[in-house]
């Protein structure tokens, strides 16, 4: 691994994304629109928006980053770009870390926009500090980015990358505690939920909406989310193929 090669890869990806207006719209506009629709739905019940808004503030960037990252990385392989890069002194970890860094920077912008707009424009009220809301939203977006990189390592086509969404995303959304409290899940499903990173992301957001001071458990939730992200990027570098053939 070389920091210079990682940074060069990251700079190249950011240049490409900056010219792709559709991707920029998906990254920055779609989460704001979805949160705006949610705020509109609950405009007569602000307490309900304050309850469901923070968890979804973590889920929306997570899903969007997963989709964009998995497809963008797969295009590098299907177009032969990655295979050509591998003829140069660049490793798989350099490639994936470069992508993770570039999309991580985009995730910072995305999480900051979504959090500030939700609080100051849509009127979402949280008990905890705003700065930690940004931290949790960023951790969720980074998790989506790294899981997208992991999914792209197994996919051969863009359609297959999209097909991984039900396998990677939907079970986590169903079991993360958003639809039903974890304590009410059957024991077996509770065990499964405890093994899914989105469970801890939603738990951190939910606690942040009710706790004035950030608790040790909330810090622990964010740490677990970031640990999952690190494992995903390392496993993805070990399984990434140069091309889709």
Keywords summarizing the entry:
single chain, 245 residues, mainly alpha, 11 helices, globular
Separate helix tally? 11
Provide the gyration radius in Å. 18 Å
Euclidean distance between termini CA atoms: 25 Å
Order of helices and strands: HHHHHHHHHHH
Number of strands: 0
Low-confidence stretches: none
Structural summary, described in words:
With 245 residues, the chain is mainly alpha-helical. Helices cover 77% and strands 0% of the residues. The chain contains 11 helices and no strands. Helix 3 packs antiparallel against helix 10 (197-208). The protein is globular. The relative contact order is 0.16. The model has no long low-confidence stretch (mean pLDDT 82).
Strand-helix topology:
Blueprint: H1 3-18, H2 21-41, H3 46-78, H4 81-85, H5 92-120, H6 130-154, H7 158-168, H8 170-175, H9 187-193, H10 197-208, H11 216-239
Summarize the structure.
The chain is an all-alpha fold and 245 residues long. Helices cover 77% and strands 0% of the residues.
């Amino acid at each position: 691994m070389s920091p210079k090669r990682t940074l060069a890869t990251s700079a190249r990806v950011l240049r490409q994304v900056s010219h792709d207006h559709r991707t920029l719209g998906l990254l920055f506009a779609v989460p704001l629109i979805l949160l705006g629709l949610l705020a509109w739905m609950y405009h007569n019940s602000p307490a309900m928006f304050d309850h469901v808004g923070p968890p979804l503030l973590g889920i929306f960037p997570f899903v969007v980053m997963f989709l964009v990252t998995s497809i963008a990385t797969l295009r590098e392989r299907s177009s032969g770009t990655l295979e050509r890069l591998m003829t140069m002194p660049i490793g798989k970890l350099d490639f994936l870390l470069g992508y993770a860094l570039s999309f991580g920077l985009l995730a910072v912008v995305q999480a900051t926009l979504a959090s500030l707009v939700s609080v100051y424009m849509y009127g979402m009220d949280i008990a905890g500090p705003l700065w930690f809301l940004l931290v949790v939203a960023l951790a969720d977006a980074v998790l989506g980015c790294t899981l997208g990189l992991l999914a792209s390592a197994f996919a051969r086509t863009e359609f297959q990358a999209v097909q991984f969404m039900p396998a990677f995303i939907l079970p986590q959304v169903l079991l993360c505690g958003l639809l039903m409290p974890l304590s009410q899940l059957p024991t077996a499903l509770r065990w499964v939920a405890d093994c899914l990173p989105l469970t801890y992301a939603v738990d951190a957001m939910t606690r942040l909406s009710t706790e004035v001071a950030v608790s040790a458990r909330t810090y622990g939730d964010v740490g677990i989310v970031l640990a999952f992200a690190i494992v995903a990027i390392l496993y993805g570098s070990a399984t990434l193929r140069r091309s889709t053939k």
